Amino acid sequence: MFDNRKVVFSGVQPSGNLTIGNYLGAIKNFTAFPEDTMRFYCVVDLHAITVRQVPAELRRRTYETLALYIACGLDPQKNTLFVQSQVPAHAELGWILDCYTMFGELSRMTQFKDKSAKHADNINAGLFTYPSLMAADILLYQTDIVPVGIDQKQHLELARDVANRFNTVHGDTFVVPEPYIPASGMKIMSLQDPASKMSKSDPNENAVVRILDEPDAIMRKFKRAVTDSDSRVARGEGKDGINNLISIYCAFTGKTAEETEREFDGKGYGGFKAAVGEVCVSALRPVQEEFARLMADKAYLESVMKQGAETAAYYARKTMSKVRRKLGFVG
Ligand code: AQP
Question: From the candidates 28, 115, 221, 239, which is the catalytic residue?
Fold first, then answer.
């Protein structure tokens, strides 16, 4: 909409140390878009405060998330990498879209229900209206494509509904975005409770493999992964643990589930778990090395943030002036 390039937008919350769920479900796919797209990748710190954060940790994780974007292959010269709170238009459009999002719609969001159950002492309004802020993040850049994990599909559908509603009332204002959920972006499940999503804020460290975990820790966590009483490496009903490990193995190696089942035919769970650990360790090693190098140069990370925020704000302003005019705001 800004020019003839397709726009890609996505974000990750700096709400914990990122997991292989965030990596395989989202960040790895951010690098999949061609040069002739316009790409915005945001560290969504405004979203992170819907759950209580320790300020010093939030600050550190904001730098770390940005460094991980770069370490995972996002070149700041070719992608706009920025921090959400440094572009105030996100909060401004978030409020406006709150007024175009229905209470009933927000009440149906499964993430709200899950997070309210997890944080029963702090069910704040921001947790409830999280999806309208997410819609604002996306619509602000006239986004065509949003690479996300499948767990975010419901929020994305809501963003589409909000865009359509606004466009119907005020005439064409926003591009209606499409999700991009590639096969390798399946939902990575907890290693200890494979019926629930692997989440960076899970207090059980054995449940979560983090992008920055040491090789020993990664191997240990996979070896302890909960499976079942069968011993055949094959997908099936009631085999959530093995289904999940097969998905992870496939995502790191590019092999299909059938190829994986054939490769481990007759080999038992122990050997398979070790093999999943090994492919994970070797895929993450270059990311970890680059991350360490970047974190030693805070001034560089700050320059990336500053440049990214300026570029993002430039495009956000274009959308906001259109939105303000359509709404009848003065000036
Ligand atoms: N387990 C997962 N499998 C596949 N994709 C995942 N994503 C997250 N977990 C998985 C994808 O990562 C992107 C960024 O997620 P987020 O930080 O915005 O929030 P989230 O989905 O709430 O992630 P977490 O790890 O569960 O965070 P906390 O614990 O803070 O709530 C999204 O594209 C998401 O789909």
Answer: 115
